[in-house]
Amino acid sequence: MAAVLRRGVKLISSGSSQLLSGGCKHGRTSTLCISSSRPSSSKINVELDSSTGIAVMRFQNPLVNSLNLDFLTEICISLEKLELDKSCRGVILTSAQPKIFSAGLDILEMYGKNPEHYAAFWKSVQEIWLKLYGYSKITIAAINGSSPAGGCLIALTADYRIMADNPRYTIGLNETQLGIVAPFWFKDTMLNTVGHRTAELSLQFGLMYTPSDALKINLVDLVVPEEQVLSTATETMTKFLAIPGHAREISKSMMRKPVVDRLLSCRDADIKNFVSFISKDSIQKSLGQYLSMLKQKKS
Ligand SMILES: CC/C=C\C/C=C\C/C=C\C=C\CC(=O)SCCNC(=O)CCNC(=O)[C@H](O)C(C)(C)COP(=O)(O)OP(=O)(O)OC[C@H]1O[C@@H](n2cnc3c(N)ncnc32)[C@H](O)[C@@H]1OP(=O)(O)O
User: Fold this and answer.
1) Which of 150, 151, 172, 206 is catalytic?
2) Residue 181 contacts residue 277 (beta carbons within 8 Å)
3) Measured from the CB, is residue 147 less than 6 Å from ligand 1?
4) What pLDDT does residue 12 have?
5) At 9, which helix (H) or strand (E)?
6) Is residue 92 classed as helix, strand or coil in its secondary structure?
7) Residue 260 carries which DSSP code?
8) Is there an atom of ligand 1 within 6 Å of 106 CB?
9) Where in the sequence is the signal peptide annotated (predicted)?
């Protein structure tokens, strides 16, 4: 159930099974409607401040915010609700997990499963990208931890990226390091942000960047002390909000629509391509080895 935190601010815990359709208004505070059952299963929480119109969406999928089917679905539903909610003007994406923004796609969703599962999973990856890259409202990524691959993609879809100044955190599209290939729309999102040559090197080597290096190549827009990431995101959002909304929105769409349309024109083929690629023995072997490496790292 939504709980009032301070004047005009509501905390919204949302498990995908708990979300009801449509937004609703409670007095002065606009928020999402959810049922009160099993709030502990929520993988995200959303705080919407109706006095500023700024929503903060925190990812909280232990341990590392890896993007599995349920989590992706939950994020997508919440984004949709915020997009429909007139009192929301912009969304800050950040993490409630220590040290990690998002570990990217959940490798277990792409390993040892059947083609139907791979297809459903990839469809949900497409959905989140289409929703975020084509999002009408302002989005800012407050990157308070590491952000490899799909985590980097989520950050790349935002209108602005602010990263915590901690050299232990890295960000980038590291797919080739896992023996897999970032699909064309991951590539296009990167290319639109950092330019052709940097994207080419970055994708081939699967480079991960420290915050200061990410700033140098414009992968992030700002690096600030960790404790200032959220406040800086809020300040930046206020600057975006000062721009006439329709003009900003059309400009955003003009920049992004060709890339969005490209995926929309071949969604089914892209799913087929993914399923056939990920099902290959050699790719499964690479993913298996990578998972073992992640586990061994601990011991
Ligand atoms: C021609 C082309 C056609 C079509 C396109 C085809 C293919 C494209 C396909 C896919 C694209 C994929 C994009 C991706 O996002 S792949 C995922 C990439 N992610 C990573 O490489 C991150 C790996 N993880 C890490 O680097 C680290 O875990 C960390 C920095 C995120 C966190 O480090 P910590 O030291 O804090 O924590 P760990 O002990 O390492 O991890 C804890 C726990 O979590 C498990 N885990 C970590 N990341 C993932 C993940 N992405 N998926 C699933 N599980 C993950 C890790 O194994 C640990 O588990 P245990 O506690 O040991 O059980």
Assistant:
1) 150
2) yes
3) no
4) 58
5) strand 9-14
6) strand
7) H
8) yes
9) none
* Identified catalytic residue from 61, 173, 175, 207: 175
Question: How distant, in Å, are the alpha carbons of 126, 134, 236, 258 from that of 192?
Answer: 18, 14, 21, 11
The ipTM is 0.98
Q: Give the chain's domain count.
A: 1
Q: Domain residues for 42?
A: 3-296
Picking from 92, 64, 80, the residue whose alpha carbon sits closest to that of residue 16 is: 80
Considering only residues 3 and 184, tell me which one the structure prediction assigns the higher pLDDT: 184
Is the CB of 148 within 6 Å of ligand 1?
Answer: yes
Ligand 1 centre to CA of 295 (Å) is 10
Q: Which residue has the tokens 């586990």?
A: 295
In sequence order, the β-bridge partners of residue 48 are 10, 55
Give the DSSP per-residue string, 62-76: TTT--B-HHHHHHHH
* SS3 assignment, position 272: helix
| Whether residue 64 has its Cβ less than 6 Å from ligand 1 | yes
Tokens 């490798």 appear where? Answer: 107
CATH of the domain at 18: 3.90.226.10
Write the pLDDT tens digit of every residue in 150-172.
999 999 999 999 999 999 999 99
Mean pLDDT of the chain: 90
